[in-house]
Amino acid sequence: MLNGKIPCFGGDPLLDLILSFNLFDGTVPTCLGDISKLEHLKLTGNSLTGGIPTELSKLPNLATLALNKNMLTGNIPDIICRSTSPLELLDVSMNRLSGPLNNKCLENLLRLKVFDVAYNQFTGSLPVVKADLKRLLEIDLSHNFLVGEFKNQFGNFFANLKLQGNSASESSALYLNHNTLSGELSKEYLYTIMIKASTIGNLGLHGNRFRCDKEGAYPEWYYRVPHATNLGVAGLCMPIPQIETITPASGYKGTQIEVKGKEFVRNASPRCKFSGGSLGTAGVTVPAAMAGISDQGTATALICYVSSDIPEGKYELQLSNFGNDWGSATTLKSYTAKYFEVMAIPEDASVLVKVQGSVKLTGMASAFYEPWFKAGVADKMMMLPKQVQVTKAEKQSRRLLGTEDRRLADSLQTWTITFTIFCDNPEDGNAKLEKLKAIFTDGSLKQGLATQKLTSESLEWVGEPEVKGISTYEDLHTETIFAMSAPAIICLIIGASACCGFCSFVFFLYRREKAGRPFFNALDEEDDDEDTGKKKKKGHFAQADEASASASKESPAAAASKSAD
Question: What is each CA distance from 303 to 248, 288, 381, 410, 514, in whole angstroms?
Fold first, then answer.
């Protein structure tokens, strides 16, 4: 197998350059755009990185461009998909390409037969195929992150296949599987066109999020589509979430809403929509979070927030597991509208409260980790973890426990955790306080912490949890907690002291250097003096000693003369 960088071939009159399934690395050389007669370029199955070079667009006869099974990044350059391009096969599958899928390829490449971008990270909606692409036989958009509904984007593709005859239809393919498509399946495509008109040979739609009908399944006509391998299957349909209760039914901007119901799909991308009133039918959508997740992985509630761009008023609240598949009278067999009222923030915002509590965990073998505690409490309280704040976490040392035995110390080890739960109003605060007490009494809180690796032998209150007021509305979202354990504070003080000492020493050296008395040159170096048997000093101190000695040896007459002067 060949390895290294792909070389340039200068002006060689190559028609085909096939270097597939080797060990080439580096980028796709831009100099390949200088092989003017090149018709087929295949670099499949190497370890090429970087982007697709725009210089390849200079090749006037390039019909095949296969760059699949590499590690290319970026997007497909527009110029590669120019209208004058002779490309018939464009295969960039199994790379790391990303960004919105370039629709120009299915608009401009008039000679295109195969378009394959599978196993990448493309986003955006499904492209619309232009009617001018009359030779197109295969489109593979599978295993990406495309969203939206499957409607009439490929109407021209199906029509052209019918014009090409049965042989073309049998070899044709449309793969949209394993994206995040949602919405209602189109009877016009799946049944009328694909079955009655027989205009598609292979179809892949599974691994998406197409919605169920009012009966909780695909429409009746779908089951008349033969589930043969070459036709593929749309996979399981996704249910529409149904609202049963909303708590609270009113609140301010920033209020957390607990929505209970059924058909909440875990690992979905749930959203809430406030519609009606001044927002109209389009409404305002906000992301939601799963809550009350059971051991079986099902969720019993969603948590929504009233965003700041929702004005005061009463709005219908709708939910969606995927895309724009909202629960409504159109999508659900039994539907009762639920409403939430956004109220004006009162001038006296002291009505906003928080629940404060402190618990003691004894015999907790693992170390305390704040996100685990917050997640454990939030799950059982059906809240988001960011609504729970740990204000203090203290652990008793082994010395205080009166033992040096590690296993015994672990069994006696005690953590005291003080935490805060933010609420919207006194009513909400009292409700959450009662719920907190209830999950403590029935053992749910201990179980919730255990699921987050905070297993303990016992859990008890330190004092009683209580509801306290918050001075301003902004405190609900801007209050931050800074808590440190005693060892951390001691380490911080020692570190600060060491830094101060080091800085003082550096300043001392600087002052001596500036005064012309470098510290290190002033160190005494001692040598044996053979004549006197004494140590002899060198350096600045030695010079001073020598001057003093010479002064003491002066004659009395010289000293008297200096005195007279």
Answer: 11, 5, 11, 37, 66
Instruction: Please give the backbone phi and psi of residue 238, each rounded to the nearest 5 degrees, phi first.
Output: -100, 130
CA distance 49 to 42: 15
The yes-or-no verdict on residue 559 having pLDDT over 50 is no
Token output for 235: 């996979």
Closest residue by Cα to residue 353 from 476, 479, 435: 476
Beta strands in 165-234 (DSSP E): 173-175, 180-183, 202-204, 209-210
pLDDT in tens, 57-80: 999 999 999 999 999 999 999 999
> How many whole angstroms separate alpha carbon 76 and alpha carbon 67?
11
Which tens digits make up the pLDDT trace of 42-55? 999 999 999 999 99
- Whether the link from the prior residue into 465 is cis, omega within 30° of 0, is no
Token pair listed for 207: 């691994």
Q: Which residues contact 246 (CB under 8 A, 6 or more apart)?
A: 257, 258, 259, 317, 338, 339, 340
pLDDT digits (tens, 9 = 90+) for 204-261: 888 898 988 888 888 888 877 665 444 457 888 888 999 999 988 888 777 788 899 8
Per-residue tokens: 313: 């008023």
